[in-house]
Design brief:
about 160 residues, about 80% helix, elongated, single chain
Length: about 160
């Protein structure tokens, strides 16, 4: 069975049909998805700006990361759930949309960037926690993350127009 057949089957599920054919389901889910993305990108941007070298109000980098991470993950989980619901309502169309595919690739790249940061610069955060500017590897991770998440938002906005 190929992917298109799987996506067609997804679109035929009762949940997908309810979202697609309901008067208000899709806009409500999309609204929650957008709000979740705002929380994800907002909390990540705060950390990224600190990593780039902007001072945080009385907080070191580690404290800022630890405080914001639970909110980021909760919002990300909500974004994944709502995004998945939106996807199944029109899976074939989304799977063929080049901007959607770019957005998914950017999400993977943002995850890889985060993993590299946590396996590298973050392991030595005790050495640079309060330092401004942070080490080059932390600044690069922050700038890359910010750029990737801005691109995710831009692609997410463009999906409906392609």
């Amino acid at each position: 069975m190929d992917l298109i057949t799987i996506f067609q089957k997804l679109e035929e599920t009762p949940l997908a049909l309810a979202i697609k054919e309901g008067d208000n389901s899709f806009p409500w889910i999309e609204s929650v998805h957008v709000l979740a993305i705002v929380l994800v990108v907002g909390t990540i941007a705060i950390v990224d700006l600190r990593l780039i070298g902007y001072a945080s109000h009385r907080r070191g980098a580690r404290q800022l990361i630890v405080e914001l991470l639970p909110y980021t993950w909760a919002a990300f989980l909500l974004a994944v759930v709502t995004g998945s619901l939106l996807f199944i309502s029109n899976a074939v169309k989304y799977s063929e949309n080049p901007i959607f595919l770019v957005k998914m690739g950017l999400l993977v790249a943002a995850g890889v960037n985060m993993a590299i940061f946590h396996m590298g610069a973050y392991r030595k955060i005790a050495d640079w926690n309060d330092a401004l500017p942070p080490p080059a590897s932390a600044r690069f991770a922050g700038a890359s993350s910010l750029a990737l998440w801005i691109a995710v938002v831009i692609c997410g906005r463009w999906i409906g127009f392609i």
